[in-house]
Amino acid sequence: MILSKITGVWQKLTWSWRPESNREAGSGIVANFLLHWFPNRISLRSLAFPASFYLGTITFVVFLVLTVTGVILMFLYVPSVERAYWSLKDLDHAVSFGWLLRRLHRISAHLMVALVFLHMFRVFLTGSYKAGEIVKSARPFNWVLGVTLLVLTLLLSFTGYLLPWDQLAFWAITVGTNIAAAVPYVGETIRQFLLGGTIIGQPTLIRFYVLHCALLPLVLFGVAAWHMWRIRKDGGLAIVEQDRQEALAREPQAPKKSKTYSVLGIASGTTVQVNDPTTLNEENSVPSTPFLTVRILLVTLLTVAVSIGLSLVVHAPLEAAANPEVTPNPAKAPWYFLGLQEMVGYSALMGGVIVPTIVILGLMLIPFLDREQKGIGFWFTDGPGRKWGVFGFVYGLVTTCGCLAMALLAPMRSIFPTIESQFFFDLVNPATFLLLLFAGMYFVVLKKTASTRYAAIATFCAFIIAFVILTYTGTALRGPNWDFFWPWQAWPVHPTAL
Amino acid sequence: MRTVASNTIQNETGVSSEAGTDPTRRGFLGRLTAAVAAVGALVAGWPLLRSLVPNVLYEPPKRFRIGAPENFQEGVTFLEEHRLFLFRDSSNYHAVSGICTHLGCTVKFSPFTLPQEETVREFTYRALGEFHCPCHGSRFRGEGTNYAGPAPRPLKCFHLEVSRATGELVVDVATEVSRDFRLVV
């Protein structure tokens, strides 16, 4: 009796209407969003762990963790210069589980940045940005959406970095926003628009807060939804391209019974004989539910568990309250910008504006520069691809270390002591050399192999290793006054005042 | 009636062959709608964006008193809250900005053991030390000239005067002066 009442209430809440016929019921299923989150069947190749390492899924789960913890943190945080820092102190010492929320939010933010990069590396190295020849898919465009998501993730992380309003936050944002000022002509205007004034203060905090909590998450959510919808529309992971090729080579199969709801009253009866032209069949695929659903749930569970586990171990640092009068020594940007900061140390214009612009544009253009369609979905395409990948890694290692050594041992200003023009040093510095060396390698490999894919692999691998080395240098090897220290060297105790 | 119908068909063919310059009434209305929408978006968007550019800044003043000249010690004093260095050489005063010209960190003064005569860019003066920036390792001579690291310009020097009302030193950080500027009190 009670049970039927509960069921009745439940149906009232969840059903907008009661289907009167089979056709209406069929329409209901077809129109159901949740039932179509995943395709009916999933290729065994896409399901395989090494095809994707589920990096995109993990990234999205981490974003959800950030959203949930972020909303709770919004209740506990006051975006004012007088109180922001003390809300952080309260979170750490006075709010029940405040420390856990903060650590979880912080570690997830770092993980998300790292995961977005790893996801990009995976998609590039498996050639998953290619349209394919059988069904021209929009994967090149989806890659562009992906690069946009990378930029949005970095912006979200950067705007969140200021909110604790401690020394680390204040000076990282000082350095970061001054990089914007290095843009020729309009730089100072951009900086002042970001800051809402000429110095970092209350207007800056509220700007970054609104960007971080409202505008950027909304935009990121929209683009991420588009990104994932496109994966469905493009037929799943790029490795499915191999299934498509096999399907094309197969003998056409005899017509067989197909799913019942696809006819929806167009034809009578519950089954229809169709010639199934689709790529996926009993041999190369499995039903998405349970095979994909369970895997995604497992990945979700593991991601949340690992994030919580990490936040139990990794402390979220909080330095002294922001003090515009005292610059900590050394003052560093967030870790993922330290590779840039290292290059900004050679020239603010080259390292902070030109190189990042070229990198972002270069990344976006990859699918349009490399239009070869072989080996889609395979790591490094094939044997020669692996060879060029290794070559790129080694080349990147040597050139990046070379440019670093040059920056340390023979700074440009000591090579050309008589030149005062800043423009000269903006053009002639190790960051420019690295850029030219990588661009040069692209064209040499292109000429040697006559393959845009191999040239792209070599350049991308060089880019990965350069990113890693420069980030490591900026993070671990730079001490007070941005001087170079080996990991085994202790930093000198530096006089902080006169 | 017949002619009207055939006209319509001809016009519709025109739509597909020359998109963008559609001469029909429908095409014109479409373009008009798009133009009005664009103007409307601009008109609506301008106040939204303009409101985010502040007209009043609640920031510290650019011109401020820093105290009586005789209260400053011989040599260099760092005024933390203003981020500037005040140099005193008996009755000569001058002020050098503590803001690195690279990315805005506060530079540190690294004093020499003994002051030394130095000539930098044809300007001879008695150097007490030099400036080091903690962020990216820029270095500046004692008069402000950048000589190492990424700093693109010398440190700024600010105008100094004596307040007529109180006799205190007044710094004007909105007025830059050349590095040989000295206020004699």
From TrEMBL, chain A:
GO cellular component: membrane
GO biological process: respiratory electron transport chain
Subcellular location field: Membrane
One GO molecular-function entry: oxidoreductase activity
Gene3D superfamilies with a match to the protein in the record: Cytochrome Bc1 Complex, Chain C
Keyword Methyltransferase found: no
The UniProt record lists the keyword Electron transport: yes
Protein's UniProt name: Cytochrome b N-terminal domain-containing protein
Organism (species): Candidatus Sulfomarinibacter kjeldsenii
